[in-house]
Amino acid sequence: MTFNPMSLEGRTILVTGATSGIGKATAIYLSKLGARVVASGRNSARLDETLAALEGTDHIGRLFDLADLDAIVPWLKALCAEIGPLNGIAHCAGVQATRPIQAVKPDFVMDVLTQNLGAALMLAQAFRLKSCHGSPASLVYCSSSAALKTAPGNVVYAASKGGIVSAVKGLGVELVRDGVRVNAVAPAMVDTPMSDQFRTILSEENFQRVVDMHPLGLGRPDDVAAAIAFLLADTSRWITGSILSVDGGFLA
């Protein structure tokens, strides 16, 4: 038998934001490692596309809006009552919103914090329940290099992702007694629809300047998916409360 330390055979893993970008790539990557994937997203057609791209069988798709914080814990409890406990969550859902502070409104702040930080915290509350996780159990968040090195006009988004960094430090220790490890990846600019949206608000010269800040160039979704898989698998058995930069040298 071939030795594969990152094998996820026999494990069930929820991937949020699985309809595009890093989330979709992660769902596909995990299926290639043998996981049964529960793919979650808000767009039915795109969710079907993701499910069709997964390797193996018995994968599950679920439409759900993580912006409804009150519904997250009941939703995950009902999901696990139906399909069994999860061995992992790859929380890739979120919003990227660039806006200078003088243009920020309270509803914008609350929307970004709700979707990028609030949902992450409520998923942790649900996943720690005995009915919602098996053994082993690993929770992986998708933070951002913006949390560690931000730029003008990006402060609200950076703050929401910085909140995840702080949450991981606390949850990584707090959930040890529940048998759950908690870590995060912090990607820099990845070639996804989200980065395409960012590109539309910059001149070509300014966007190229951003690209040049990454010594290894822009990342691909699979680069981040591989790091998430590492943190879900037994390869990271002795890691919790950590932030893994996946940034092409952006923070170097």
Automatic annotation (TrEMBL):
- What are its E.C. numbers? 1.1.1.175
Which protein family is it in? Belongs to the short-chain dehydrogenases/reductases (SDR) family.
> Coiled coil where?
none
What are this entry's molecular-function GO terms?
Answer: D-xylose 1-dehydrogenase (NAD+) activity
Domain Ketoreductase residue range list:
11-197
**Which SMART domains does the record match to this protein?**
PKS_KR
InterPro entries on file: KR_dom, NAD(P)-bd_dom_sf, SDR_DHRS6-like, SDR_fam
Q: Which UniProt keywords apply?
A: Oxidoreductase
Which organism's genome codes for this protein? Answer: Asticcacaulis taihuensis
What is this protein's name? Answer: D-xylose 1-dehydrogenase
